[in-house]
Design goal:
The complex is a heterodimer. By secondary structure, chain A is of the alpha/beta class. Chain A is 27% helix and 19% strand. In chain A, the strands form 9 sheets. Chain A has a 7-stranded mixed beta sheet. A 6-stranded mixed beta sheet of chain A has the order 7-6-5-8-9-32, with helices on both faces. In chain A, strands 27, 28, 29, 30 and 31 form a 5-stranded antiparallel beta sheet that branches. Chain A starts with a strand and ends with a helix. About 1% of the residues of chain A have low confidence. In chain B, the strands form 3 sheets. Chain B has a 5-stranded parallel beta sheet, with helices on both faces. In chain B, helix 5 links the parallel strand 6 and strand 7. In chain B, helix 1 crosses helix 3, helix 1 crosses helix 4 and helix 3 packs across helix 8. Chain B is elongated, with a radius of gyration of 23 Å. Chain B starts with 8 loop residues before the first helix and ends with a helix. The chains are: A alpha/beta, B alpha/beta. Chains A and B meet through strand 3 and helix 2 of A and strand 8, strand 9 and helix 7 of B. Strand 3 of chain A pairs parallel with strand 8 of chain B, so a sheet runs across the interface.
């Protein structure tokens, strides 16, 4: 490789061709541009004519320059220029490539592989032996085997980063015991993080040869979960704009649920509060740094982030049905059930289930108080409710696990035998656990337990009544806390449990519970944790394949190659093992640090070739300009510009049509005849209202459709009154109509003439035939008696509109359908008729004005109104037919239909 | 004018009929018909072979029994003979140059000179046929009647193209008292023309010379370095500055036209020039007027 300043050339001998450039200049200058060749019969007249100006036209100098530049660019490109090429490693002795294979290497793993591959290729080219050491904790215990470098390629390409930190064996000695002769050169592709034995290995390698370290191109970041004062918080180490909370949404689709913004930086890391509603937080399966794709940026959510396990202890059963509302547990259960897992039972039982919160409802002198105290001491949250039993206890002052000493008895306010009115709640302290909640005015307290006055009382009170007597008190015991509601959990003492405030207070309190108070690991109880799902180095979840259960004490030591980050389960308990750790930058004293940003050097061949191509295009344009004048050049240029793709245009949808898709709006074809269009609009509106009143179909306002311009794909039903004056739509409109029919739409053709012509069939003589001929319409037949249209909603025999007694035509039933014995209907298979054709002028029968009164008269008197009702029934049946297809012809409904047919027949007899 | 070349004889004929639709049937000047040998459709105002009634005359000796008109004779005691008016037809011969140079068109949307020449030739022939003349290609037999238009169209389309850029008509094909139409571009100096005209004059044959050119040949719109070559490649001329040649070229073209007009005038012929850029009907009208004189 030849180096000229910052540019290196891979094939410098090609540059010798540059010598030819001046020669080329002379040759190109000497040769005039080729003449145009024109066939011209008049050449006979030209014979013997001499040019007036004899100066030979030469190629203009700028055209020459363009050509020479193009050639020079080509020559330079083929010489393989590289901007700031990577200097070669010393080309002698064995090569050892050390690759950190933990999650820290994941973000730029392909670049690392490419760098190692390049080193191995170079070594193979120089005939050096090489070895590959993957720092994943497995490799390196045996003496390294140095082999021909290209035999390592397969192993290199197959390797990937793991969901654990990079690791090397404790002692580098055995691995390095059998080195081939020659000075060792080491290429260490580091992930930039320190790991336990790295310094020892580095020292050992540096003693035996030259170490070149390739640090990561970009700084790493990592995410860890740590228990906060009230709730667990995430800590973001390094860069990162936000943390994404990912989990299934209510539809069960995995997606980003929330985007958490980290707080202020402190010592290289930032805290990210898990500020999520409990319901949402319970759905989170993982937290991930936005834009980072390595296992260290992922925190898997386990019990510590998930729903709190709340244990209810109190008089749970024993209440007769109907007296539920008297049970205190009922109110607590109702308040917490949406956001927490509830366990109910005796205190001893629930403690075994490792709850996060224990709620004691009006309990005194518990037998297991010692265990409970131990549990609180380890970080449990105990919430106690007062009640008649506590108030009546004569040893209340001796009761353990209370935030404040209580006075015996209690206090009644506003009772029959007491002075004063029931007390309301004082506003909550802004910075307290209830800060931001507003007590409703109508919450009053009639009875409470009173605390012994003391210096600590004010600081332990987190909610008070309006007379400043405590309502809720809290105190810390060891790592846990105890909270006491001085009222009962049922509405006996106050109406607090009936208010929404009660739910919010409990939710807030439960959220402050520390996740799963650390239980001493009991080796007999959970000796092994089984991996459920593990992460690879890129932070992707994989099924655990080839992994054995992990001993509990190993799991506590963090992830490694045999226990990558992931979800581990032991019995009922689930624990997440996260790879992320605080960042600890590695130090490399005395090593040569390769600038990772430089990488392979920037290849200049591509840009140069592009430049040459560009110059040639320019040359073609300029030559055309010189030879034929501007017109051809302009045409060429226009051709080049026109071949560029036009910018994409966003498709805009008609808001009316969007509405049609949102609410099932009926549509009619605008014919251009104002009277007919008004009848269609009013008629469909009347039918829409009837549908709203009588069925669960609730269409919006009808939509007029212009067949020429409107998109039909969002519509389901199209009413097409046939008029003589309507011009036939264009071919594109028919394409759209046919697509509409094929995709399940239906057109109701209405010739509106009441079959005046008397042909007894669809009026195929005139306008209808003209309009409908290009449509894909199947063979038609009059509606048979057993057609599903007669029973989709109402049972109908006739389909009157403003006129009646005329046949209505639909798709002909299949030829083979026959009536089976015992079945009232033929087994007609699928296929909703795409068109219904008739002449009964239905829209006029349906039409109503703004007051809901019919617009057009029908028949005479009562008979006419009956006919109008039947028209509505036909309309409803038709829309049901459009929307549900032949669902009603399903034989499942036959018994029911038979029954109804029978009941209709009996009165008619 | 539609740019599609007439691919077949039928198409050529259809276009020719369109072009000549509005012109009256051709009746050539009468004085030249007086001594015509061959009978035709022109009434000679004397009895003779023909189709139209001319007179009844009393039968005289030498009239055969078959010549007597018995219907007229039955009305009197004398025998009568029905005479018909003597009719003759003019004979016209058309020659279209088949030189390679005729296959030139200066623009892709313009028909070639050869196509236009065939079109004009056939239209003219059809007009004359409508007038009852006998028309044929020079050197071929002249006939009358509508069928001849078909034959002419086929012959024009099937006429073999010459290998050279230019060709000449065969003076030996001239017949006395013919009307001859020569259609060519006359770009190469037609050395044959004086001899041809002299022989024609000797035979009493007159006609029209139509010089048909492409607009590019009339305006010479070239400039820059150009290598001109004829259609067959036999002639070449290279110029470094074609634009400067325009003046000289146009001067030579005008000189050629003057020479052609002078040659034609000297032999009693007419000279017409037409361009493929003109409407064919215009060219035909001009040609028609020249023929009628």
């Amino acid at each position: 490789m030849l180096l000229l300043g910052p540019i290196g050339f891979a094939a410098p001998w090609v540059l010798a061709a540059l010598v030819a450039l001046p020669v080329l200049w002379v040759i190109l200058r000497a040769i005039p541009p080729a003449p145009q060749r024109i066939t011209f019969p008049g050449v006979a007249l030209l014979a013997g004519l001499a040019d007036r100006s004899t100066t030979a036209r030469r190629t203009p100098w700028w055209l020459l320059l363009i050509r020479l530049l193009a050639v020079a660019a080509l020559i330079l490109a083929f010489a393989g220029p590289v901007w700031r090429p990577v200097p070669l490693l010393p080309a002698s002795g064995p090569l050892l490539v050390v690759m950190d294979a933990g999650w820290g290497a994941a973000p730029d793993w392909p670049a690392r592989q490419a760098r190692a591959e390049r080193a191995l290729t170079e070594a193979a080219g120089a005939g050096r032996r090489a070895a590959l050491l993957m720092a994943d904790g497995r490799d390196g215990a045996q003496p390294l085997r140095f082999q021909p470098a290209d035999s390592l390629m397969a192993r290199l390409r197959g390797a990937g980063p793991g969901g654990f930190p990079s690791a090397l064996p404790d002692d580098p000695g055995p691995a390095l015991s059998d080195l081939p002769p020659g000075r060792l050169s080491v290429l260490w592709l580091s992930d930039g993080q320190d790991h336990p034995n790295r310094a020892r290995w580095f020292q050992a390698l540096a003693e035996r040869g030259d170490v070149t370290v390739v640090p990561p191109a970009r700084p790493l970041n990592a995410l860890t979960l740590e228990p906060g004062p009230d709730a667990p918080v995430l800590r973001l180490h390094g860069e990162g704009a936000a943390v994404l909370a990912i989990g299934p949404d209510p539809q069960g689709i995995e997606r980003e649920l929330a985007r958490l913004i980290p707080g202020e930086a402190e010592a290289g890391s930032r805290l990210v509060a898990l500020d999520l509603p409990p319901e949402q937080r319970n759905r989170v399966t993982r937290f991930q740094i936005e834009g980072a794709s390595h296992a260290g940026a992922v925190v898997l959510a386990d019990d510590s982030v998930r729903r709190r396990k709340v244990a209810l202890v109190g008089d749970l059963a024993g209440q007769a049905e109907g007296q539920q509302l008297l049970s205190p547990a009922h109110y607590v259960r109702q308040a917490l059930a949406p956001s927490a897992d509830l366990i109910e039972g005796g205190l001893g039982d629930v403690l075994d289930a490792a709850p996060d919160v224990v709620i004691l409802i009006d309990q005194v002198q518990l037998a297991e108080i010692g265990e409970l105290a131990e549990w609180v001491d380890r970080g449990g949250l105990l919430i106690r409710f007062a009640g008649p039993r506590m108030a009546g206890s004569d040893r209340l002052t001796e009761e353990l696990l209370l935030p404040v000493p209580l006075r015996q008895g209690g206090r009644d306010i506003g009772g029959a035998l007491s002075w004063g009115d029931p007390r309301g709640l004082a506003p909550f302290a802004r910075d307290g656990v209830f800060g931001g909640l507003t007590p409703p005015d109508d919450v009053t307290v009639r009875a409470q337990l009173m605390a012994q006055p003391g210096p600590d009382l004010a600081s332990r009170t987190i909610a008070t009544l309006s007379d400043m007597t405590p309502l809720v008190t809290r105190d810390r015991f060891g790592q846990g806390q105890v909270v006491l509601f001085h009222v009962s959990a049922n509405p006996e003492w106050s109406n607090l449990p009936l208010s929404g405030l009660f739910v919010e207070m409990l939710t807030r309190l439960v959220a402050t519970a520390r996740s799963a108070p650390a239980t001493e690991s009991d080796p007999r109880e959970a000796p092994f944790w089984t991996p459920q799902s593990v992460l690879d180095g890129f932070g992707r979840a994989l099924p655990p394949e080839g992994l054995s259960p992990v001993a509990a004490e190993d799991l506590a030591r963090g992830p490694a190659h045999d226990r990558p980050a992931g979800i581990y389960a032991a019995g009922e308990r689930v624990q997440a093992l996260n790879a992320g750790a605080p960042l600890a930058p590695a130090e490399w004293p005395g090593a040569r640090i390769e600038d990772a940003g430089a990488g392979q050097g920037l290849g200049l061949r591509g840009p140069l070739l592009a430049l040459a191509a560009l110059l040639m295009v320019l040359d073609a344009l300029a030559s055309a300009f010189a030879a034929r004048g501007g017109r051809v050049a302009a045409a060429l240029l226009a051709g080049l510009i026109l071949t560029a793709p036009p910018p994409a245009q966003a498709q805009d949808l008609d808001p009316d049509l969007m509405r049609a898709a949102a609410e099932v709006a009926l549509a009619y074809v605008v014919t251009g005849d104002p009277e007919v269009d008004r009848a269609s609009e009013r008629g469909l509106w009347g039918l829409s209202l009837a549908l709203r009143q009588r069925s669960s179909v609730e269409p919006g306002r009808p939509i007029g459709v212009d067949l020429e311009s409107d998109d039909l794909s969002l519509l389901t039903f199209l009413y097409w009154p046939v008029t003589d004056s309507q011009p036939a739509p264009g071919p594109r409109a028919y394409l759209r109509l046919n697509a509409f029919l094929r995709s399940g739409g239906m057109i109701l053709f209405d010739t509106r003439d009441g079959d005046l012509a008397g042909v007894g069939g669809p009026d195929m003589s005139g306008a209808l035939r003209r309009l409908a001929a290009p449509l894909d319409i199947p063979p038609l037949a009059p509606v048979p008696e057993d057609h599903v249209l007669t029973r989709t909603f109402y049972l109908l025999a006739d389909f009157p509109g403003r006129w009646q007694g005329n046949p209505v035509w639909v798709e002909a039933p299949p030829v083979g359908a026959e009536i089976q014995a015992g079945m009232p209907f033929r087994q007609l298979n699928d296929g909703v008729s795409p068109v219904v054709i008739g002449g009964n002028s239905w829209a006029e029968a349906w039409a109503i004005d703004d007051n809901g009164a019919p617009l057009y008269p029908i028949g005479r008197g009562w008979e006419g109104e009956r006919q109008r009702e039947m028209a509505y029934r036909f309309g409803i049946n038709l829309i049901m037919y459009v929307l549900t297809g032949n669902y009603k012809s399903d034989q499942v409904h036959v018994p029911e239909l038979l029954e109804r047919l029978r009941t209709e027949e009996i009165p008619s007899r | 004018m539609s740019p599609q070349p007439p691919a077949s004889a039928a198409a050529l004929r259809a276009r020719a009929e369109t072009a000549g639709l509005h012109l009256p049937g051709l009746i050539l000047a009468a004085e030249q018909l007086a001594a015509q040998v061959s009978p035709g459709a022109h009434g000679l105002r004397r009895a003779g072979p023909g189709e139209d009634f001319w007179q009844y005359r009393p039968a005289s000796a030498g009239d055969g029994m078959r010549a007597i008109d018995w219907r007229r004779s039955a009305r009197s005691d004398q025998d009568f003979v029905r005479d018909r008016e003597a009719q003759t037809a003019q004979t016209a011969a058309i020659w279209v140059s088949g030189g390679q140079g005729m296959a030139f068109s200066g623009a892709s949307d313009r028909e070639t000179k050869a196509e236009r020449a065939r079109l004009l030739a056939l239209a003219l022939a059809m007009l004359m046929l409508r007038g009852g003349e006998r028309v044929g290609l020079l050197g071929q037999r002249a006939r009358s009647g509508r069928l001849q238009a078909e034959r002419l169209a086929e012959a024009l389309v099937a006429a073999p193209a010459a290998q050279a850029d230019f060709d000449a008509p065969d003076a030996g094909a001239l017949r006395p008292r013919q009307r001859v139409v020569l259609i060519a571009d006359f770009l190469a100096r037609p050395d044959w023309l004086p001899g041809f005209l002299a022989q024609a004059a000797g035979l009493g044959t007159t006609g029209v010379i139509l010089q048909l050119l492409d607009p590019d040949e009339e305006s010479f719109p070239y400039h820059g370095a150009v290598l001109f070559r004829s259609q067959s490649g036999a002639l070449r001329h290279e110029s470094r500055d074609a634009g400067a040649l325009r003046g000289a070229y146009l001067a030579r073209l005008a000189e050629r036209r003057d020479w052609l007009a002078a040659q034609a005038g000297a032999a009693g012929w007419r000279y017409v020039h037409a361009s493929t850029g003109d409407l064919p009907a215009d060219s035909l009208t001009e040609l028609w007027q020249m023929m009628g004189r």
